[in-house]
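[09:14] KT: can someone run the structure on this one? pasting the chain below
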Amino acid sequence: MNPDLMNADPHERARLMIALSGTEGLSSAKPWHAEESWLAAHLESCASCRAFAENSRETIRALRGIPITASGRLVFTTQMRVRQRAAELRRQQERFWVICVCCAAVTLSTAVSTALLWRGFAWLGHQARLSTPVWESGFVVFYLTPAVLVGILLLARGTFLADHNGSFQD
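[09:31] RB: done, structure tokens below
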């Protein structure tokens, strides 16, 4: 419970607790049972706070009884936005699965091509009578060159866009 509420006038404290009942204000309080029992005891002894609590209940009941209808335009707009959001979420999920499948395909093809490339370099190194560290170094350079080149190109493109457009957007 809020420390200011604990030090407040008992009637003010009771009215605030009544106003906050059903909201996060009281449900977040740790010793709620003690507060609830204090409020019950106070309402038994205080007619004005008891009347306030009854008036609050009556007002809430009356407000809940008022039918609120939405215009056709509001309903149509809301339905349209809900459908758009559902379509957007569906597209995001589809893209996620495409990305997952692509990642799996790239991982599998990388594993296969790495094994084949390794054997090819080993065979070439053996045929050319190169020492093992030489053909292994050639393998590493050949294997990493495409990734390094693509990284440099993307970095250059990003720097170019930032310098000429002031942003990274196309």
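[09:33] KT: thanks! Residues 72-127 form the longest helix (56 residues).
[09:34] RB: yep, looked fine to me
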